[in-house]
Amino acid sequence: MAKKVVVGLSGGVDSSVAAALLHQQGYDVTGLTLWLMRGKGQCCSDGMVDAAKICEQLNIPHEIVDSRDVFEQNIINYLVTGYAAGSTPLPCSRCNKAVKFTPMLQYAKEQLGIETIATGHYARIKFDSDTGRYQLYRAVDRAKDQSYFLYEVPQTDLGHCVFPLGELTKAETRQIAAEFGLTTAEKPESQDLCLIEAHGSMREFLDQYIYQRKGNIVDTQGNILGEHEGTHHYTIGQRKGLGVAAAHPLYVVAIDAGKNEVIVGDRAETEAQECTINQINWVSLAPATSPIRAEVQIRYRTPPALATIVPLDSDSQGDANRRARIVFDEPQFSITPGQAAVFYSGELLLGGGLIEPL
Ligand SMILES: Nc1ncnc2c1ncn2[C@@H]1O[C@H](COP(=O)(O)OP(=O)(O)OP(=O)(O)O)[C@@H](O)[C@H]1O
Question: Residues 135, 346, 307, CA angle at the centre, nearest 5°?
Answer without folding.
Answer: 105
